[in-house]
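Task 17 of the worksheet. Students: predict the tertiary structure of the chain below and write it out as structure tokens. Keep your answer in the requested format; marks are given for formatting as well as content.
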Amino acid sequence: MNTAEFLQITSAVVPDRTALVCGDKRETFEQMADRVNRLANWLASVGAGPDKPVGAMSTNSVEFVEAYYAAAKIGATFVPLNYRAKQEELTYMINTSDVAVLFVGKRYLDLVAALKPTLTSVEHYVCFDKAVEGMPGLPDILAAASPDEPFVDVDESRPTVLIYTSGTTSVPKGVALSYLNLSVYVTNTMSPADPGEAPDVTLLSVPIFHVAGVTPIMSSVWGGRTLAILPQFDPELWMKAVEKEKVTHSFVVPTMLKRIMDHPDFSKYDLSSLKLITYGAAPMPYEVVSKAVDVFSCGLMNAYGQTESTSTMTFLGPDDHNIPKEPGPEREKKLHRLRSVGRGMDDIVIAIMDPDNNTLPAGEEGEICVMGSRIMSEYHKQAEATSAAIQDGWLHTGDVGYLDEDGYLFITGRKKDLIIRGGENISTGEIEAVLEGHDTVEEAAVIGVPDVEWGEVIKAILVPEQGAKIDPLALTAYVKEKLASYKAPAYYAVVAELPRNPMGKVLKTELRKTHGHPQDDL
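Model answer:
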């Protein structure tokens, strides 16, 4: 199934229902379908298609969502770009994915202008907002393009979206998710639009370059929901949108949920329309979820997934968040399960495996592996990484954990050395390489340490150059010059040497034991 059919079907079933809302801009499904057809016809006229992907660099917007559907209609892979990435990373993503048409939000015109000399595949640039020098504007394109329905035979095994995510090296990995991957996910988790029911409203507040931003733009359209779009997350704007648009469903990362609850005006907003808040993408501090259980009257759901698995693999549902008030075994069991990520989705098989890929019994810790029709097809142009991640049909997540006797999954660590800060995957290797490029640092090892607001923050354990003195402020500024600011260490420690195994590999498990607390150890 082509995911563009979600819009085609829903616009026929509930044409007058509001599809997209962003600020003062509102569109019905019929209007959205017309604009998507026009854009799809223009894309085809300039050569975009299965071998010429379409990219976008922008904050969330109505136009961003429409650009995805227009690309899908003509079988062009859509590449939503992380505008927080550094120029070198963006150049790599755009060139490696062979983006031929690049849509740009006005906020990023200067960034794209700086990138242009390094981009080898882009043939057409379009500004989402209006025509600017060297770029046509989307409004002018839509006004001139044909509204006819384009018909393109699309291979559902081909990638419909390419999402770049941080890996264990400094090179981003492009996760190729096919039309089939996303069709299976959406149709298994959402009922189609029903003209006889009042529509729910989904609030999109995570960036579309995350899988948690990609899936709502499909599931809400298939389900006939109104998608209320926040360009970027802000706790007060989130609450205002919930109140104004009568939002029923929203996904947030733990950092966002904490900021919402901690906002001084939290109690002033009417959030009673909410039916379900889903949280995930990073470890949820126990104290945050415990508070959420108390302050929200709606259902809560913890969703654990990866880009490579087309989003959610397990979920801890609303009933699991309903904690009995009376002391006793049932209360203690449910409180303990709040530390889990719930049980597997119906279309996913979960196994805990040892290093030899043997399945382990309940209670034993090993790597979390999953199998199902939603597993990515590949890491784009990274065959070695793909074969390491997918073995005999099993996706090796790199996360470590165990299943209890009732099938609840508990995550205890990560085999892949990543830090997840506020939902952002951060490679430790790239930070270590930058730190070791500083004149005062001989060796560096980076770990994640717990943080109530961000889930995890970065701590660097350093061996200084002989006679050198470590200056944390200078090092932080240095890292921010080289990498995105959220990749800079929050804490530092200085040691005479790093612990290593006989093969010379740094023993980060030992470093976490001795330095895994959120404070400087200078």
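Marker's comment: The first strand starts at residue 18 and ends at 22. The chain has a mean pLDDT of 93.
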